[in-house]
Design brief:
- The complex is a heterodimer of chains A (380) and B (387).
- Chain A has 380 residues and is of the alpha+beta class.
- Chain A contains eleven helices and ten strands.
- A four-stranded mixed β-sheet of chain A has the order 1-4-5-8, with helices on one face. In chain A, strands 2-3-7-6 form a four-stranded antiparallel β-sheet, with no helix packed on it. A two-stranded antiparallel ribbon of chain A has the order 9-10.
- Chain A is globular.
- The two termini of chain A are 37 Å apart.
- The relative contact order of chain A is 0.10.
- Chain B has 387 residues and is of the alpha+beta class.
- A four-stranded mixed β-sheet of chain B has the order 1-4-5-8. A four-stranded antiparallel β-sheet of chain B has the order 2-3-7-6, with no helix packed on it.
- The radius of gyration of chain B is 22 Å and the shape is globular.
- The model of chain B has no long low-confidence stretch (mean pLDDT 93).
- The chains are: A alpha+beta (380), B alpha+beta (387).
- The interface between A and B is large, with 45 and 56 residues.
């Protein structure tokens, strides 16, 4: 067992941190909360040129030929600075699924554009009940001449407002079990019949309602197999849950560092408040949450990278990390006191995103149910 | 980055696992569960393990070890505890310190015997008025020629009644300006005249002891480190182990047992719908604690100091918290049956849950209370101010 990153990975981390510290200050994060697009096209172009979108893709498509673990490092760094924009979705919900199950034509068509930063992807998965289970997929794709027609409403779809393509998860057969009869389609986001509304959210990210009204999709845009999409969707969710956990880990680290630095400086009763055991214990438990998250997230990312099964570890990780980030921001604000709940402070940026991230790709309860099933319980 | 044990570690794990599957019989398990200390069956098993060099795999070969890394220690502890073989082995812990602070004669005299389970040690730090504030101990050692004369009292010395030697912290200089500067550490033969051992029993049934010293003579050759240098010795004993253990096979076995019990006895009842998620939560905590501990152990093997001192200390903290949560949850699952003692009619799961539940507070108190651990993490790990 070796918990260390390789030398190349340490270099990747350092260069990412240096770049993001310079290019993604909190002023940009705040600006993007108000921005219509929610990301900076200039910065998007720069990270594409650095090879970030292509990091985990094979060289034959223009990628960096590196691993999911390398991507995890990048996501952790992005989580530290609260990097705004569709990087996460384009890579984990667009590019990697196409790499996994796309046809050669699909890979040739989409991956080079993802890698060069030309194409933004997101996945239209969740619907009105906001759940990540098969029964919740009700948007219908009906066979028609040369393809399918999609109808229905998707909800909580991140960055749909700027996406060029959707991986749309739709029901193509509703006669059998909920898990059967689901198909993934690659949909041009500019297709006639698609309308998007940006929702106002806690993290001021760009989650959207996406309405499909008689949207036509050619048959060759089916990703993977007809009616057999759900097991792939599950894999995509599991991997995205791990990736999201890495991003959350980065955010937690900053909240811990910021809190520890503050309690060393903040004087009350003539001493730094960090002297008080009540405050020390808050900080110790924050460290516990962060270190636990690091161990879990990196084990899971390592498993993805090395081809080990990771379904169980994905659930364990997202369950732990979701709760951990909540506890870290709660203890962090408590240790800071009043200053940290004022909008201008950085803490609210993290506090609000901790909740959004908890909800993404299954919250702690969702994943605990998976762990319970793995233990042998029958859980609905 | 790699999360797998090395082939050498896996081979050791398999060897000790298969050995204990075969040799850790019901008599040994009964002695362990009695919590009365090592009995004859336990001693016999430990001797067999000693011959196979399983007890101190981390020590150099010349002292009876295998020259393996810290991970071998984590593997050993995991296999021993999950088989209900005798544990803890304070002699090995003390030997770890002796390797660092003992002189060559002492190492030769004690380490091979400890590794063969022929010499068992008991820790002797705590006194009635010195718990977390260990530097306040009073047991007095006065130099007399080539000997020291010892007078005073120790408490909660759990292995004293079946051990051969006492790893004893004493005060040699009561006038030292700082109280931790006047301490000395001795290895005392527990059969020496003047030592009286009296039992104390915890609510879980664990036998521990008070140990009284009345004009007990100990040779200078048994002084470890410098006279008045005892503080450095006990610090190396507390932190000399390195690493964080990690593997939690025993806890996972208990979780499995509880899952089986629930599936067989209470699966469908409406009022038990809370159980799967609660057990999942405990499993998740156990897994994370295991990972943190293993990583810390791996860092120790690599001689690398990770950020914040790494996960060892926080892993121990989480482990204590999780144990409390596990057995309290288990008691809630058992409901009224949980209160039945092991020899009672109707007692579920052989009364084991009750025993463990009653034993949970000990784990957050012994070997440095959680509060002391938090203090160390806060000040050493996070660099928070002391005053």
């Amino acid at each position: 067992m070796d918990p260390r990153l390789s030398e190349e990975q340490e270099i990747l981390r350092k260069s990412a941190r240096d770049f993001l510290t310079e290019k993604c200050p909190k002023s940009l994060v705040r600006e993007m909360e108000k921005d219509e697009k929610g990301y900076s096209p200039g910065l998007w172009k720069e990270i594409a040129e650095l090879g970030w979108m292509g990091l985990a893709f094979p060289e034959e498509y223009g990628g960096g030929g590196m691993s999911f673990l390398d991507l995890a490092i990048l996501l952790e760094e992005m989580g530290r600075v609260l990097f705004p924009g569709p990087f996460f979705l384009t890579v984990t919900l667009g590019g990697l699924p196409i790499l996994d199950i796309g046809s050669d034509e699909q890979k040739q068509k989409y991956l080079p554009d993802i890698i060069s930063g030309k194409a933004i992807f997101t996945m239209t998965l969740t619907e009105a009940d906001g759940k990540y289970d098969a029964a919740s997929v009700k948007v219908k794709a009906t066979a028609a001449d040369n393809g399918y027609v999609i109808n229905g409403t998707k909800l909580f779809i991140p960055d749909a407002n700027v996406a060029d393509y959707f991986l749309c998860v739709a029901r193509t057969d509703d006669k059998g079990k909920a898990e059967d009869g689901i198909t993934i389609f690659i949909v041009d986001a500019g297709s006639p019949g698609i309308s998007k509304t940006v929702l106002k959210t806690i993290a001021r990210d760009k989650q959207c309602e996406v309405i499909f009204d008689q949207v036509q999709v050619p048959r060759e845009n089916i990703l993977g197999k007809l009616n057999r999409g759900w097991s792939e969707v599950q894999k995509i969710i599991e991997r995205a849950a791990i990736a999201k956990s890495c991003e959350m880990l980065g955010g937690m680290e900053v909240v811990l560092d910021m809190t520890v630095a503050y309690v060393k400086e903040r004087i009350q009763f003539d001493v730094p408040v960090g002297v008080f055991q009540a405050i020390q214990h808050h900080c110790v438990y924050m460290l516990l949450e962060v270190e636990g998250s690091r161990a879990a997230a990196y084990e899971a990312a390592w498993r993805v990278s090395t081809g080990h099964p990771y379904s169980s570890e994905a659930a364990i990780t997202k369950a732990w990390v979701s709760d951990a980030y909540q506890r870290v921001v709660a203890l962090g604000t408590q240790a800071h006191g009043g200053v940290s709940i004022i909008e201008d402070h950085d803490m609210p940026l993290y506090f609000r995103r901790a909740k959004a991230a908890e909800l993404a790709f299954g919250d702690a309860r969702f994943h605990r149910k998976t762990v319970a099933r793995n233990l042998g319980f029958k859980v609905a | 980055m790699d999360f797998e044990l090395t082939p050498e570690e896996k081979a050791f794990q398999k060897e000790i696992h298969e050995f204990l599957d075969k040799e850790c019989n019901e008599n040994v398990v009964a002695e362990t569960l009695s919590m009365e200390g090592e009995g004859p069956y336990s001693k016999e098993l430990l001797r067999k393990m000693g011959i196979r060099k399983m007890l101190a795999p981390r020590w150099p070969v010349e002292y009876g070890g295998r020259g393996m890394g810290a991970m071998s220690e984590a593997i050993k502890v995991d296999e021993i505890t999950s088989h209900y073989a005798p544990f803890p082995l304070d002699g090995v812990e003390i030997g770890n310190a002796l390797l660092i602070v003992g002189n060559e004669e002492q190492k030769k005299r004690f380490l091979p015997g400890i590794a063969r389970a022929e010499i068992e040690f008991a820790l002797g730090y705590t006194e009635p008025n010195a718990g977390s504030d260990i530097a306040s101990i009073q047991l007095r050692a006065v130099e007399d020629g080539d000997e020291f004369i010892l007078n005073g009292q120790k408490i909660y010395n759990t292995e004293a009644h079946f051990s051969d030697y006492h790893w004893l912290l004493s005060r040699t200089d009561p006038t030292a300006e700082k109280k931790h500067r006047g301490l000395s550490l001795f290895m005392v033969d527990l059969t020496s005249p003047g030592i009286t051992i009296r039992p104390l029993v915890t609510m879980a049934g664990l036998r521990t002891n008070e140990v009284f010293y009345e004009d007990v003579r100990v040779p200078r050759a048994n002084l470890v480190g410098e006279k008045n240098g005892g503080w450095a010795v006990i610090m190396s004993a507390l932190y000399g182990g390195g690493g964080g253990g990690g593997l939690a096979t025993g806890t996972k076995k208990v979780i499995d047992t509880l899952v089986k019990y629930v599936l067989e006895e209470k699966q469908d009842a409406d009022e038990n719908r809370w159980i799967p998620e609660a057990m999942a939560d405990i499993y998740i905590r156990t897994h994370v604690q295991e990972l943190m501990g293993l990583q810390a152990t791996a860092f120790a093997d690599l001689n690398v100091t990770p950020p914040y001192g790494g996960g060892a200390a926080v892993s121990r903290l989480l482990s204590g918290d999780t144990r409390r949560l596990l057995y309290n949850t288990a008691m809630q699952i058992l409901g009224p049956y949980g209160q039945l003692a092991k020899d009672s009619k109707w007692a579920p799961l052989k009364g084991e849950i009750l025993r463990e539940f009653l034993d949970t507070p000990r784990w957050t108190i012994v070997h440095g209370s959680q509060e002391i651990q938090k203090l160390l993490i806060a000040t050493r790990g996070l660099g928070l101010p002391r005053k």
